[in-house]
Amino acid sequence: MPEIDLTPLYPALDELAPQGRAGLLPALHATQELYGYIPEAAAVEIGAKLGVPLADIYGVIDFYTLFFRQPVAKTVVHVCNDPACAMAGSEGFMKRLSRQLEMRQAQGQPVGVLSIEYAPCLGLCEHAPALNIQGAQVARADRHTYDDLVMGKLRHPKSIVTSEISILTANCGKKAPTPLEQYTTGGGYQGLRKALDCSPAEVIAEIKAAGLVGRGGAAFPTGVKWESAAQAPDAVKYVVCNADEAEPGTFKDRVLLEDDPHRVLEGLIIAAYAIGAAKGYMYIRGEYLYQYQVMQKAVKEARAANLLGKHILDSGFSFDVEMRRGAGAYICGEETALFESIEGKRGFPRIKPPFPTTAGLFGKPTVINNVETLANVPYILTAGAQEYRRIGTEKSPGPKLFCLSGDVTRPGLYEVPFGVTLRHVIEDLAGGVRGNKKLQGILIGGAAGAFAGPQHLDVRLTFEDLRAAGLPLGSGVITVFDETRDLRDICLRLARFFAEESCGKCYPCQMGTQRQLEIVERWMENRSLPGDLERLRDLAQTMTDSSLCGLGQTASSALSSAVRLWPELTQPLQGGRHD
Fold it and tell me: How does pLDDT run across 461-474, given as a tens digit for each residue?
């Protein structure tokens, strides 16, 4: 191996050195951006600068899929192969792209150094099939994509937004990020100004009165979480924005981050004021490089305008934000795994209790909210809790974002008030099933959600109505499948996703997701064993009851619901092996 010149790396390491181990992920990203991978000499230098053992550094590198220990191709192309993209033809595109590369190489044409591999959901489900090229997102890959790639013509896809009620998405779908001046002209940061005129306890009371609950899937009352952290005796506290959106079918946070970053940032600053935090983190998934860059710019704009930093808006409140970029690990969407990642460790979930509001990031009281939750906060402070509760239902107040993809005429992000029916969103707003075909099924809540059938179309989209129907709201995913789709294949992709994304820390999830995948693979190949259905049910119960975190606890949800709705999925196929 050639000797590596580490000189260009020293400035970044010198800047990160005071953080110690917490600077590890930024240091690894900086190294890989310089060299294309993380050379051994660089890893040794990182360890020396940050005070981290080399074995720990390699443990972190190997945990995250976007870090490389060995040289890789100059250009790495990831092709999404989760349900929405697979239905849109990602596998066919992968084959064509590979053939084009091989043909050009055989003809002696210059193709550069290129590698192509499958990837889990890239958060571009409404633009399926999707690619990620060196961190750049590419939508609706087709036969022209290879030539466009070689010629550098590929452009970032624009968000597709439909707003029946325009609050969270008021600045979205306009083909460019909303700059600070435009955001403030439209009333932005008025919520923060109102918050600073109140006591922290009054801000928390307003959030509680509004009835806001978490929009990431757990639906925990936001005001209660804030109050618990505010009352914790420790003087040092943190707030964290969880933007590690990686649930197959989910892309709502991506749209908010790239189109209206200041709304999310304003919500985070208000949260910090409410609990008494002087520092916060924005953790954005590694595949969202563009969104990370947009948010970086927004943070700089806010800092320059005295919306971040010392004595914000000439008040006695000081607060600043540090950016963190993930590196390809679905498990880091779990709050305690995310803390571990920020702290420079592998993203393993922690045992709870203690809960984050008493012992979270760096062992300090911490509030962590997802992007959509924080985007609600400025409106609540500006309009007031009473006005907020006029939207939605009594038990599910406010607006909600839904991500529609799959076999629907108009895929995209939809903002509606809680309480509209599933039928209204799919048929009235999104134009119904594409191609005038019949509806077969709907996956609600993402890979960790559950399947619904046509008989569920009139269920209202609220926490209480969905719960009564045995369905989760989850992360707001609605993936539509028409009558021609083989749901066995969809189940296989979901089972494979969880088997690949299980972090391996707890045995029920590590082994349960593997055994679950094996059973579904046997279905696909017409070689089911006697008792497989009972094994699947037993695995589901064991993972739900015994797994350490939400990944294992919900890894069987969609599959179990599919078997209940369509028992024939477990039966042998006519004509032998499934193609």
Answer: 999 999 999 999 99
